[in-house]
Structures are given as C-alpha cells and as structure tokens.
Amino acid sequence: MAFSSALVLTDLNDYIAPSQACIKPVEIEKSEDQGPTEIKVDQGGDYYEISKDGGESKLEKASITLNDCLACSGCVTSAESVLITMQSQEELYEILKTNRLAIEQNDPSQHRTIVISISPQSRASLAAKYNMEPLQVHKRLVYFFKHHLGAHHVFDTSFSRDLSLVESAREFVERFRRYMANGGDKMEAALQRQDIEKQQEAEDGKRRPRARRRAAAAKNEDGEESSTQQDMPMLASSCPGWVCYAEKTHGHIIPHISAAKSPQQMMGTLVKDYLATKTNTSPSAIYHVSVMPCYDKKLEASRPDFFLEQFNTREVDCVLTTGEIEKMFGEQNLQFDQLPEADIDDMFNKTVTNSEMQMAFGTTGSSSGGYLEYILRTAARELFNIHDVPADPSSESSNNARVIVKTGKNADVREYFLQGDDGRILLRFATAFGFRNIQNIVRKVKSGKCSYHYVEVMACPGGCVNGGGQLLNPNSEEVMSAKDWVSRVESVYQTVPGVSPEENEVLKEIYNEWIGDPSSERAHTLLRTQYHAVTQNLENPLATKW
Amino acid sequence: MPRLELVASLEGHQDRVWQAIWHPSKTILATCSGDKTVRLWAPASHSDMSNWQCINTLEGGHKRTIRSVAWSPSGHEMATASFDATTGIWEHDQRDNDWECVATLEGHENEIKSVAWSSSGQLLATCSRDKSVWIWEVETDNDFECLSVLQEHSQDVKMVAWHPHQEILASASYDDTIKIWREDDDDWYCSDTLQGHTSTVWALDFDASGDHIVSASDDQTLRIWKMYKPNNAQGIPTPSNDPTYRTVCTLSGYHGRCIYSVSWSKVNNHIASASGDNTIRVFTQTAGGDEPSWEAVATIKDAHGVHDINNVTWFPTQQHGDWLATAGDDGVARIWRLVEDE
C-alpha cells in the first residue's frame, strides 16, 4: 500500500509481483473461436497477431504513463523510476541547451521562455537546512536560475496561492448558500440544538443514555435522515496526493472536493494564459517549471485536465522537488550557501521593496497554504457579517471567543468552531493531515455523519513542509529527531509574515484585467478544474488475485 | 502421558471453517467460514457435552469469506474480518437473542486476515494482505476511529494479537518477521522486529503474563520468545529503550508441514499447535528461566481427516481449561479434551 506521503524516489526492485490490480483499465477484445494464434514481432518492434488463416493484425501497444503509475499502488512494470525521471532536471537542462543553440543559430522558433515557480515550502526547507532566511533563499534561487542557468523569470507560488484561496473561499460561500437553501438550514438547527443539549447535560452532570438509542431518538424527532447532499463538507483540493487517492479509492467523495485549482496550477494558468497573452508568446513557447515539496505535484502537473489542447502544451511542464534542485546545485558545482543574491524583480512574487529593503510575504495559517483560516474568515464575513475572526485562530495570542479551536486525537486533526454572538455554532471546520485522519473523514462523509462544513485535507502528516520531496533531516537522530526537524522547517516557514489576498494589489489588478467577472464561465474555466473517479476494469488479465 | 480425546464435532458450515474462537466467559464457540457466515455453538445441555447445536448464525454482513472472528472482552460484541476488505462489528441484542451488524470498517485495500480486540475492549486491530496493520479505537454510538495505519511489514500480514493486559500489539507476516507495536504520544510505532523464522509466520499467541510469545511458521517450527526489559540482568541490549524479545526455545521436528495456528493456554500454560500435516500437538513446559524446555505430550493425527487444520484455540477459563477447539478445511469444528492419565 503506497500513500503519497510515503512516495519517495528509491531504488526499485526490478521485479514487482502483480499482487495488486493495475488500475489502468486494459480492454482486450476477445473474439470467439479464433483458435490458436501466433505473435510475430517485426524489425520495427511492432507486434502482430497472426490468425490461423494467415491474416495479420497489428496489436496495440499497451502504454502506461506517469499519470497512471503514480496513482497506482501496485505497478506492473518497474519502469516507474524511468517515468519519474521524465520530469526531472535532465529535461530542464535539455531545454536550456536548446535555448543556447537557438540563440547561437539565431533561430527564435527553437527558443523557449523559461519560467520557474518556487513554492514557499521548498524555500523554507532550503532555509532550514542552510540556516538562512526564506528571503535569502529566494534571492539565491533567483541568481541560480536566472543568472547562472539562464531562465527568464522566477516566480513565487505564494502569489498564485492568493488566487487559489480567493477562488476556494468563493466556492465555499456558493456551496454553503446552496446547502442552506436545500434543507441545510434544518440540519444546522438540529445540530445546534444537539450542541446545546450536550452542553446542558455536561453541566448537569447527567449520564448520557446509551448512545445508540439516543441517535435513533434524535432521528425520529427531527425526521431528518443523515445527510445525503453533496455540497457539505467541502474538502480541500490543493493536495494531489489526497485527490489521486480519492479518485482511485473513494469516488463517492469527489463531489465534495473543491473545484478551485491548486497554487501550482493557478500559476500554470497565470503563466500560460495571462503572461503568454501579455508578452505575445505562444503558450507552447513557454517552459514552466515548478519547485515543489513532493512528488505528487508531478502527477498533478501531468493531469489531462491541465493540458492545453489548443496549444499542445501543459500548464506546468515540469515539477522538480526541493531535493532535486538541491542536486542541481551539486551538478553545477555550486555551493548553495555561497551563491550571491539577486534581486527579485519578477511580477508574480509576494515581495515588497521599500527603499533598499526587500521583504517576502506569505499567507497566514498552516504550511499547507492557510486554506482553512482564509475560508473561515471570508465565510464569516460573507455569510454572517462577522468581521472579527482572527487571521490565525489557533495561535495563542488570538482572541478565542469567536473561534473555538480543539485539537483532536493527534496534532494533525483540529477542529475550528465559529461562534455567533448568541453562542450558536455557525461554522464547523477541521484539518485532517495524514492517512489515518483522512480515513476518519472519508468514513464520516460516507456514512453521512460528517458535521463539518470545510475540511483542509492534506496527505502528509505535519502539512506540506513535511512533503516527500523536501530536504531530509541533515542532523543525526540524537541531535535533532525527525519530528523536531519538521517543526523547525515549519517555524522557518512561519517567519514569513502573512498578507491576505485582499491586500495583494498586484493580483487584484491582474484579476480585474484578466478575468473580470468572477462568476463568469471564463473565470470557471481558468480557475477551476474537475476530478474523475478511477473505475477498475475487472476483466483485466494482468490482475492476479491470490 | 496425557492424550487428546474428541468431545464433539460441530457440522453445519457449507465451506471450510477458518477459526473456532471461544466466548471470553461462557461456553459458546464462534466459528467463521468460507461460507461467509459466523455460527455460534453451545452444548444442548450442561450434562451432555458431546451434543452441540448452532444457536445463532451471523450472516449477510460480508460478501466474501470471513477469515477471522474475535469476541470483545465483554462478550457482547464481535468483530469479523473478511476477504471483502471490510471488518464487521456485530452487537448482541439480549432481548431478541439476535446479532446485528452495527458497523462496517473500511479502508484496507484487500483481504483482511485477522482481527483482534485489546484486553480493555477499547482498541481493535486488523491486518491485511495489503501489508498494513490498522488500529481502531472504539467510540460511543458504534463509531470506530482509525488511530493509526502501520505499514512497516514488507509482505502480507497474517495475524495480529494483543498483549493480555497492556495495549501492546504483535503482528505476524509473510515477510518472516513478527513486529511489536506500541503507542507513543499520538502515534503507534514498531518497537521491535522479531527475526528468526525462515519462512512465513502464520500465527502467534501470548502467554498468560504477556512476557512470552509463541509463534508458528511455515518453516515447520514453533518459537518461544521471551521479553527482556531495558537494563535487564542478562545484558540483552534494548535499543530505543523499549523491551525487546529474543528466541529462548525452538520446537522443531514435530510437524512435517506448515504450522498454521498456535494457542497458549492461559489456564494450564500448555501450548497447542495445528498444522498442514493434519496433526494437533500439545506441548508442556518442563523447564523455565532463560533456557526453557518444552516437551510434546499429546498428539492427534488426522484430526480433521485429510484436511488442513486452520486454527486451534484453548478454552480461556478454568471452567473447561482442558478443552481445545479446532477448525478444519473439512467444514467441521471439533472440540477436544486433554485427558491427563494417572
């Protein structure tokens, strides 16, 4: 069983027993009564089936792409490692080389604009290892990619994340309103009554009657069946590990996943649509690389939904993990801590330059993007006209009367309750990081017992700073344990102060110019995506069950 | 020399019987089978123990073979582990004398091989061919919350068993090892890996104190492992300051085929083993300490005819401490008594 946070690039054994069904549906049309057939291989390596009467028919080659492989937990071929290297620094070097040749030969048709988008989590990982501040890391990366390698732009996905946050919050408000209009108001009233009852009983010190009978009684009272609607809860969509797992194993939960694109893909759209148009460049003449904390982002970039058919190009062409770019420094014979710093002068960045000082900004909240915090604040404002929700309700310094934060069985599961002025719980949000916590959310949603309105679901325990592609703990276990290393990367990540998307003036201008009406179809096409449940073809002859 | 004699044969299942597990306190036997049902058996009358009848059948809960069944410590609930990748939780309604499936735990990717309740009744463990061990916590209103998904075995996990008093779990796997799992802060981790068997470890059981484990393997041996705490007198190193287990005795040459099941009596300290060579053997300890020795005292050949014996379990309390239940591929469950001749 391989879940995304366990996905790392390791030496693969060349023989992998087909112990699990390959998820790639292979349809084989079997014609009846054909009798024995022969297989012939010609010089070009093509396979032909020769039937009894001598007729030849060319056989289709079965193909497995990176997309199929990384989503599957049991691979038929061990060429997964080959497929992962298809998206690697090798490809980037090739593009750079082609560019140099294009310039030498004065052939602009071969030239591509190279754009690098860096995630704040990768930045924090490098900052923690090399004992620098995230801004210093960013400036060195600008030097490395732009000045040393020859890329044209270096962007920060914190910028595009604002787009993702705004779109997610917008979608949440839409869903919540729809939910309330379709019977959700009765469900909420019932839940709020239950809250008050529970509170009263706790105060009276009464023993709760046997839970099973009580649940049945509650059902009869309100005549409400457990929820079958699909608007609530809304589940975060920016984690491809979670999305792929849901598509493969829990197709029923797909309607609950937010349609908003992730920061990586938002940047893809910004680069290949907005920037391409602005600079009058064809999207296929732009090569977009993103630096991410995990391998699943490679999978996300290669989704067919993010392929622009019209231009025969992907919105994100290549994803490199933090570990892979660290390897690049070595390959280029450079010491990262000795690199000079270059100015951050590209448009899609969240930095502010005051006189001679540059400051980097991020988003308040978890290292996985701060979705929960932002959506909670926005929803409180839009739905209930409540304006005093703290930017980070879980920090000790914030006033917790408005938002009650409860930690669950482990640090990766937390509940956030928005309290109205009359004490009623208006919104119930939660975080669920890591496989075991995701199991619990999925189970609750499946049985209709999930009372949350939004859950920030992430595959990696500890959030994105603990992604499978991040730099490993450089200290020995005695000096700093693995857990402490993750905490350190998290605290480095948090040193970048948060600035809300509403205060991102550059983004607002771009949005108005480029998108205009947020509820338009164009906005939905550019900023939202879809998910597809993977159906298993049970006649797959490659699937052996024993 | 003691000997085993047949007390009763329980027929009724339509397919092989995988396990025969005793109720924690009453004289009731639960058997689970390839026919997708669980049957509960009790003697027709207290005076005649040779006549048993099926008092209840739990059906409709699973789509495939039920591979394992476990009683909760109270005896009011049961868990069934199935090849359909789900674990069923059943509750006994005393008024109707009926069993109802109150919850179905999903999550495993494929066949679940074993399920076990902790001694406190608060935790449930399941293991599967997907190489993982899951730990669940019992919540109110029949909700079970997943506490941890442990993926350290490199192959199919065949069985899980809890320590008789503490919340410590042991798992046996096709990867030839046994792993011990403990809780730390907010997560479970593997505190020890017991290596020694040269082939699949099919089953294991703790002794009454929990300080020893007996394991049964495809390598045709039984191994007795002893727990050594940190700073033990014998100087056995305990990495990461957790107790570690070492083999103190190996019983080999007693079975000619794979040993599928083993049970350590919590009443009389005997060990019973069941094998693909169609025999059941009973062993008794003749010397203790750090180099214990065990002697084979009773054998039954062809206990289920030519069919494999899948499971052997001792009666858990004094009431019938000399009883053994076995489950066979012949679709029959048998009850045996260890008779100590003078």
Automatic annotation (TrEMBL), chain A:
Residues 481-535 form the Iron hydrogenase small subunit domain. It holds the Pfam family Fe_hyd_SSU. It comes from the Eukaryota. SUPFAM superfamilies: Fe-only hydrogenase (SSF53920). One of its GO terms (molecular function) is 4 iron, 4 sulfur cluster binding. Belongs to the NARF family. This is Iron hydrogenase small subunit domain-containing protein. It comes from Circinella minor. The lineage of its organism: Eukaryota, Fungi, Fungi incertae sedis, Mucoromycota, Mucoromycotina.
TrEMBL record, chain B:
Keywords: Repeat, WD repeat. InterPro entries: CIAO1/Cia1 (IPR028608), WD40/YVTN_repeat-like_dom_sf (IPR015943), WD40_PAC1 (IPR020472), WD40_repeat_CS (IPR019775), WD40_repeat_dom_sf (IPR036322), WD40_rpt (IPR001680). One of its GO terms (cellular component) is cytosolic [4Fe-4S] assembly targeting complex. Gene3D superfamilies: YVTN repeat-like/Quinoprotein amine dehydrogenase. WD repeats lie at residues 10-41, 59-91, 105-146, 150-181, 194-227, 309-342. The keyword Repeat applies. PROSITE patterns: WD_REPEATS_1, WD_REPEATS_2, WD_REPEATS_REGION. GO terms for biological process: iron-sulfur cluster assembly. Belongs to the WD repeat CIA1 family. Essential component of the cytosolic iron-sulfur (Fe/S) protein assembly machinery. Required for the maturation of extramitochondrial Fe/S proteins. This is Probable cytosolic iron-sulfur protein assembly protein 1.
